[in-house]
Amino acid sequence: MGGPRKNQPGKRGWARRCAVQALYQWQLTGQSPSQIETHFLANEDLSKADPSYFRELVHQVPVHVTEIDAALEPLLDRPLIQVDPVECAILRIGGYELLQRPDISYRIVLNEAIELAKVFGAEQGHRFVNGVLDKLARSVRAVEFGAAS
User: Fold this and answer.
1) Most exposed of 5, 11, 21, 129 (fewest Cβ within 10 Å)?
2) What's the pLDDT score for residue 46?
3) Are 132 and 76 in contact (CB under 8 A)?
4) Is 75 left (phi over 0), alpha (psi -120 to 50) or beta?
């Protein structure tokens, strides 16, 4: 009966959780990723997280935000500016991983995003996040998607 509990995030999962909060802060305050990273490292417990993956997300999502948003926009039922800021941060992390991290299975990306939306998003936010990222995965990971079917 030992071992990790189901639904307990691993180190990357914890990094994503922290990154959602950091990117939410970035979206709302306009602070630099470096400022936000410094704040998180000083004030948040990142002991469960993969710190290098946290840093990657906090710095690389803003670097690629134009490309990520351009990929997400056509899949949304409203302008990205009208999406809940927490769900926007989750979509951007998922979009980054789908577009820039082909080494991470699209299934993991979708599952992690859904879990983040269940923790941080609105009541049915996980359905919205799943729908958008599923469409993105089908278009940018078509070969991987087809192989899994």
Assistant:
1) 5
2) 81
3) yes
4) alpha
Q: Please determine, looking at this structure, whether the domain spanning 11-141 carries the CATH number 3.40.50.12710.
A: no
Domain boundaries, the chain: 11-141
Q: Measuring CA to CA, which residue among 97, 89, 92, 90 is closest to residue 53?
A: 97
Whose tokens are 């997400």? That residue is 72
Question: Rounded to two decimals, what is the model's pTM?
Answer: 0.91
Q: Are 75 and 132 in contact (CB under 8 A)?
A: yes
Distance of CA 10 to the CA centre of its chain: 15
In whole angstroms, what is the distance from residue 42 CA to residue 24 CA? 18
One-letter amino acid at 86 equals: V
Q: CB 147: neighbour CB atoms within 10 A?
A: 8
Nearest-10 crossing angle of helices 85-100, 51-63: 100
Angle at 71 between CA 101 and CA 14, to 5 degrees: 40
Residue 48 is classified by DSSP as T
What does the pLDDT look like over 9-26, one tens digit per residue? 789 999 999 999 999 999
**What is the distance between the alpha carbons of residues 84 and 90, in angstroms, rounded to a whole number?**
10
How long, in residues, is the chain? 149
